[in-house]
Design goal:
Mean pLDDT: 95
Strand order of the largest sheet: 4-3-2-11-15-16-1-17-18
Helix content: 25-40%
Structural class: alpha/beta
Radius of gyration: 22 Å
Strand content: 15-25%
Shape: globular
Oligomer: single chain
Distance between the termini: 30 Å
Length: about 475
């Protein structure tokens, strides 16, 4: 059986280039179509380029003007969606955004090779649906994304950047969310019905599914015994090719966020996305571990707060928010550290992630699920600086210097989890997505995985061998510590 190859290229200089040169390469590569060359080193660009070479993409033309590494994936006239991880505009822990979201310097190199494949045809869309309180304008302006897009537009290239979200929020004093509806957001509601991972769940448990800071009454309308709906951006559905560009990090609810989890950002209203199930493990929930009166009160107060918030009763929101904080203090005193599904017992988020991936791969341009995959996907991960500790929004920087490339999301996530020092068999998102089902199979390839790398100890190694090397030792979030690591 043919091996599934994953490319891991490690940079010597673990840093991102300055945006003043709009992330141009520092070498005049034979295939490079522009005349702009940066004065300072751009090792990120080199890492993306060399990774394509590692995987043998258009190998016969490498080193020539005709080299087109993405030409077997992207055809002239295609609509190409680049999906970075743009979770938040600020790191709530220490302000470090280099480990928070996919950096535009990595995206810039990818765009250049997409343009070679398109040959002055088609279009490129950069898009994501970050967390509701993310200031998208601030993110793209301070990071360099906006300048990068304008650079291409001035050259007549059809490149744009889009905030997929239909609902955004400003947070005021007391943690109150003031919601705004973006009427320009475009999406299609897709019902997986009996093909959902939630199919067969009893109505009582479905009614307890939650996502923090959102009105639970809306979720109940979209997840019931007879339907399981998601609200997918039309930009995603119209794409012929998707370049999935995750920022691998530890994750409070999922254990780790890699390529599978990154696709949650194609859903434009978060109320469609179950993240945990209300209650303790022994009562059929996965919000926290053990039955506890204070936990139960806090959970009920969260529902009240979110419903008051949705109905713009902000005075009541502040009162309930104070009561929630009091409960949180008591829980910390009791050493109950698991809240809101942020622990290894969360069995809900993996179902949501798997459902979304089914839609991304199998829904056609009208949102109708087909028996065969409808679009090509390539994964290019930014691990130059990754996040460990309390990810995804309060990560601590982990200097890795890695650009990773692959084509199969399950195989890719297994390898990346392994080099992070995490046992993928303990990450429900990966385990569930790997399951062979009758329809909408995400991982439909042989089990063989082979890594190609400029790191000698990882090159030509299988994932089973890489697991034993444990190249990096990422710090998990507190709710996964002592569980997700290799034994």
């Amino acid at each position: 059986m043919e091996d599934i190859q994953i490319g891991l290229y490690k940079m010597d200089n673990i840093s991102y280039p300055d945006k003043k040169n709009l992330f141009r390469p520092s070498k005049n590569y034979p295939e490079y179509q522009e005349k702009d060359i940066a004065e300072e080193n751009n090792d990120v660009y080199e890492a993306v380029r060399q990774n394509f070479h590692l995987l043998g993409l258009d190998d016969s033309h490498y080193g020539s003007r005709e080299w087109n590494p993405l030409g077997s994936i992207i055809k002239k006239g295609d609509c190409v969606l680049i999906k970075p991880n743009l979770v938040m505009d600020e790191n709530k822990l220490n302000g470090d955004t280099e480990c928070l979201y996919t950096q535009p310097s990595v995206v810039a190199a990818v765009i250049d090779y997409v343009l070679i494949a398109l040959g002055n045809t088609g279009e490129i869309i950069l898009g994501d649906a970050p967390m509701q309180e993310c200031n998208f304008k601030h993110l793209i302006e301070t990071s360099g994304y906006l300048d990068l897009v304008k650079y291409y537009q001035k050259k007549g290239k059809k490149v744009s950047i889009v905030d997929f979200r239909e609902l955004t929020s400003n947070v005021i004093d007391g943690g109150v969310y003031i919601n705004t509806i973006n009427k320009d957001a475009k999406g299609t509601i897709i019902d997986l019905k009996d093909n959902s991972e939630f199919y067969g769940t009893d109505s009582h448990k479905l009614n307890r599914m939650r996502i923090t800071n959102y009105n639970p009454e809306i979720m109940k309308k979209h997840h019931s015994p007879l339907k399981h709906e998601y609200y997918i951006s039309d930009y995603v559905l119209k794409a012929d090719v998707i370049i999935n560009m995750p920022k691998p990090k530890s994750h409070r609810k999922a254990g780790a966020t890699i390529s599978l989890k990154n696709f949650v950002g194609v859903n434009i209203r978060k109320e469609f996305l179950p993240h945990h199930t209300k209650g303790s493990k022994d009562t059929g929930g996965d919000e926290y571990e053990k039955k506890n009166l204070i936990h139960s009160i806090r959970s009920a107060l969260l529902d009240k707060k979110n419903m008051y918030q949705a109905n713009k009763k902000y005075k009541y929101v502040k009162i309930v928010q104070y009561m929630i904080k009091c409960c949180s203090v008591i829980l910390r005193f009791q050493k109950n550290k698991y809240v809101e599904g942020s622990w290894y017992g969360n069995d809900t988020i993996s179902k949501t992630v798997t459902d979304i991936n089914k839609i991304v791969y199998y829904a056609d341009k009208k949102g109708i699920l087909q028996d065969t995959k409808q679009r090509k996907v390539i994964i290019i991960a930014d691990m130059v600086k990754s996040g460990e500790g309390e990810g995804p929004v309060m990560p601590t920087c982990k200097n890795c210097g890695i650009i990773a490339v692959g084509f199969n999301p399950v195989k890719f996530d297994k390898v990346i989890a392994s080099i992070m020092g995490f046992d993928y068999e303990k990450i429900p998102v990966i385990v569930r997505a790997a399951m062979k089902k009758e329809k909408y199979i995400i991982d439909d390839t042989p089990d063989n995985i082979m890594v190609k790398s400029n790191i000698e100890e990882l090159d030509n190694r299988s994932n089973d061998e890489i697991k034993k090397i444990r190249y990096f030792n990422f710090e998990p979030t507190s709710g996964w510590k002592g569980h997700i690591e290799f034994d």
